[in-house]
Design goal:
This protein is α/β, with parallel strands linked by helices and about 250 residues long. The chain is about 35% helix and about 15% strand.
Length: about 250
């Protein structure tokens, strides 16, 4: 039982594999072959008291009445990364609007996190704050931190999916192909800005031909560079207005 491409050996129960399908719905189709059914179509991860304590030990509690925004500027594929200066533009506007802005990432992204902070500059006196935690949180502490945030902003990456799973609203930046496959399905708590690039700006190769067997033209560039920071910041502000913590959770 499972999925298969046309050249795969046929299984007793099988769903044809088509690359451009949402991964959650693909998986639900497969388990449906075994008779499983669910009305849940979103991820869910339980945050433990130990996760919250680990986060608080590094970050401290959220400031009362001040929104907390996590930003993850990384992604395994460099083409899925929004440029540093665009993340920094949103971080600077958020800090000046009074947000506590926390840039996150693993140890390999410490320089990337610091680059966002340096590009954003210091917030004006009496406004919010900016700091990078990249490389300072293990997975449990990251889950605890994300649960404490009012909004999480990121590329199509693991931390954005984790934020959604712990119940935090997210503002995501996706290339159109990745949006088809992995963007959140609802928009009440999650917003998606899409990059519509379909050809390599260097050689003109069609980048919509993706998958394990698709050729890579060899050029690394951001597929989502054209996404407007002003639109992303608007998403952050809109989602903050729905924050249960700021409404007295």
């Amino acid at each position: 039982m499972g999925t298969g491409t046309p050249d795969a050996e046929r299984l007793e129960r099988m769903v044809d594999y088509r690359y451009y399908q949402h991964e959650v719905l693909r998986s639900l189709e497969v388990v449906g072959l075994a008779g499983a059914a669910t009305s849940a179509v979103g991820p869910a991860v339980a945050v433990t008291a130990a996760d919250r304590a680990a986060s608080a030990a590094v970050v401290g509690p959220p400031a009362k009445g001040r929104p907390r925004l996590a930003i993850h500027p990384g992604a395994a594929d460099p083409r899925r990364r929004w440029p540093v200066e665009r993340f920094a533009a949103v971080a600077a506007r958020a800090a000046d609007a009074g947000y506590e802005v926390l840039v996150i990432g693993d140890a390999s992204e410490a320089d990337l996190g610091q680059a966002v902070i340096e590009e954003a500059g210091l917030p004006r006196p009496g406004r919010g704050s900016l700091r990078s935690l990249a490389g300072q949180l293990d997975l449990g502490a990251l889950a605890g931190l994300l649960e404490s945030c009012d909004v999480m902003l990121g590329n199509d990456s693991g931390p954005r999916h984790l934020a959604q799973a712990v119940g935090t609203p997210t503002a995501g930046i996706y290339w159109v192909g990745n949006a088809i496959m992995a963007a959140p399905l609802g928009r009440a708590a999650h917003r998606v800005q899409i990059g519509w690039t379909t050809r390599c700006p260097s050689c003109g190769a069609d980048v919509t031909q993706v998958g394990w067997t698709a050729p890579h033209c060899g050029h690394d560039f951001s597929l989502i560079e054209a996404v407007d920071p002003a639109e992303v910041f608007r998403d952050v502000v809109d989602l903050t207005a729905t924050s249960p913590r700021l409404r007295g959770r």
